[in-house]
Amino acid sequence: MADDPPATDAERERAFAAERAARLRERARIQAEAQAETLRVLKLAQTDILAQLAAAPSDWALYHLTALKGEIARAIATMEAGVDRAIGDGLARAWAAGVQLVDAPLAAAGIDLTGALRAIDTRRLDAMQAFCTDRIKGIATTLIDRINGELGIAMIGGRTPFEAATAVADALKVGGVNRAVTIVQTEIGAAFSAATQARQEQAQEMLPGLRKQWRRSGKVHSRLTHDLADGQIKKPDEPFRVGGGRIMFPRDPKAPPKDRIRCGCTSLPFMASWEVVHPLDQPFTNAELDANATKRLLADAKATGYDGWARRILDRSAKPEGTVMTAGTVLPEVEDFLKRKADAVLVTREIGVSDRMLAHFVRDSKVAAGRAVPVAVAQRLPDILAAPKAVLWDEAAAKAGRPTLQYIAEVGGSETRLARFTVVLRDRDHRGKVHRHNFVVSAGLVARSELTNAKAYRLISGDLHAD
Q: Which helix (H) or strand (E) holds 410?
């Protein structure tokens, strides 16, 4: 990503389109590599089986035939395992690439949602992998039955060994190579499109302008109905209209076979507008965390993610790029105060902070002036938001139309001043076209006496007395 994110919609469009094209090339590369590996494994099996046939005695006595069948079964079992691995690896890579078809172009356009969106549910990928494993097993079973049938006919004199070998070679090509290539092209493409679809559905709440666009494959012998759908734009949760039917994305497993097998079309992320709503992850409520151990673990993982992310910014090992992380949630007693006393209704309980703001907390000029919060204090921002020494309502800011909370924490050591983190409950950043809520917008050290001014601040929770 460039140091300076795109500033205009035109610049965003160019960066978005360029990265989107790069991600499509990645999909093509994954499919080509999976197909190449599948063909390699199949050709090895084909060579092995035909060599076994060539070395077999011409009389093909029963005991020779039994041994030959065993060797062929071994070769096909090896082939089955190899093809299964190749397709399984391709599916996993295609799934990750499908997510990146959404994430990477948006990041290039200056909208990084990777920290705001949870990992998409992989149960669909698991089902696809199981489906492909069954299909490969079916190919192997069919090949063994077909080859054994050809050998049996030859043994009773119905065919010459040469004719039998020719029939086996044909079975390996049509029933093995062609079917496996069809699986690679269809199912790896399906995994890519399914992951893209899932990511778009996730992101649409934050990006009301996000759409999906059907793009034809460009193949010479393409489906006319798919070509006619080219350029069609839908919301992520709406199906495309293709040939009179409804298809959520190209190669959708729910689509009829005539519309999905070897389809090369693509569902592209498309931005109708660049407005971003609520660009953070939605924290779990206290009730959800209390009721679900898995969600508690996920919340802990998020805290760990913040820790590493913040450390890289605060020790200046990473340059701020405009990323945002959830640092905490509004406390229940604070939310209650806002509803009862301040006539403020929260749209979300989360409190976010950007990497640029973290860097601002400890910038050199603030350090030189003696106002910067220590790095160790900035690093534990989630702890401070979860258990502050006090939370204050900023009366002056509220009168100015900028509802603001002040989160207060002890610094410790010989420092008698308190650390103050300013959280603004704002509805919209008009310049950046970003809806934001409850953002930490500044931090610094402040004298305790300044915070006890009842005309300036109203105490919501905690106290300001020295510990």
A: strand 404-412
CB 363 within 8 A of CB 372: yes
Q: Residue 114: which domain range?
A: 9-203
The structural domain count of the chain equals 2
**Domain stop point among 203, 224, 251:** 203
Mean pLDDT, 10 residues at a time, over the chain (467 residues)? Answer: 66 92 94 91 82 66 66 85 91 94 91 72 86 87 79 68 73 79 90 94 89 89 89 94 92 93 94 72 56 56 67 83 77 86 69 85 77 88 90 89 90 89 70 59 90 90 84
Is residue 248, in this structure, part of any structural domain at all? no
Q: Which of 280, 250, 112 is nearest to 186 (CA)?
A: 250
- Residue 301: helix, strand or coil by DSSP? helix
pTM > 0.85: no
Comparing C-alpha atoms, which of 253, 255, 201 is closest to residue 226?
Answer: 255
Residues 260, 281: Cα–Cα separation, whole Å: 34
Residue at 244 is within a domain: no
Give the tens place of pLDDT for each residue, 218-265. 877 788 899 989 999 999 999 999 988 999 999 999 999 999 999 999
Query: Does 381 reside within a domain?
Result: yes
Kindly tell me the burial class for residue 39, based on how many C-beta atoms sit within 10 Å of its own C-beta (0-12, 13-18, 19 or more): middle
133-153 per-position pLDDT tens digit: 888 888 888 888 877 777 777
Residue where a domain stops, chosen among 166, 181, 203 = 203
Q: Are both 315 and 424 inside the same structural domain?
A: yes
Torsion of CA 6, 425, 386, 110, to 10 degrees: -10
- Give dist(CA 35, CA 40) in Å, integer: 9
Q: Residue 116 corresponds to which tokens in the numbers above?
A: 């705001």
Residue 265 lies in a domain: no
